[in-house]
């Protein structure tokens, strides 16, 4: 990703300004990108972590203009906690993804749940918020999380893709809230659209989004095929399967890779291609 300072508004097009939060990590790239939509009045998409410096940077970028809505793509703590101090400062409602509280024993990655997220208004697929010269229409894209929404800006054919499609890496799909079958269907849904550009929550803008989405679908199908080939060799536990598939990966990313492999396995199990016995995965019909 091209380097630029945190907290500095970058105008991407007349209706869209980006402000980068200072929360870089192996899971967030250079940090969470908050997008400000509008000119005379505004929407703020994914205000990021609860960080005083980032909230102050957003308020400077707002410059006293009315904020019609604080819009949330999903409830991970690198995206939604900043909505609360921003709402207190601007009086704007928090709208977007439904609040989901999922019990999980999985490792807490950087993209952990924001347990305090509570929107003033839930938006469903096709619902919208609008202001002077702009509209944000919700596009349901579950998979990365069960409640994930993208937001289309029809005035310029832009799509704010959150973490469903990012400009630097593929999304982590972490069960039970993440679901590989839903993620793939959401990618296919986006492939059927004609958006001009994606503005993701992490990474640079995507100027040829349909090509990227086709590549992401192909990448996930390749991973699925890799799992099936390895399990045809012999049954394997999740950890061994992951290390075989992701040889040479940054060790800090192994937990995330393991969650995505597990999501693939759950999808394959749902299609009766694999099953699990005593924490060992194997092809259906294969002897342990």
UniProtKB/TrEMBL annotation:
The lineage of its organism: Bacteria, Pseudomonadati, Pseudomonadota, Alphaproteobacteria, Sphingomonadales. It comes from the Bacteria. Signal peptide: none annotated. InterPro entries: LACTB2_WH, Metallo-B-lactamas, RibonucZ/Hydroxyglut_hydro, Sec-metab_biosynth-thioest, WH-like_DNA-bd_sf. It holds the Pfam family WHD_BLACT. This is MBL fold metallo-hydrolase. Residues 30-202 form the Metallo-beta-lactamase domain. It comes from Sphingomonas insulae. CDD domains: metallo-hydrolase-like_MBL-fold. Coiled coil: none annotated.
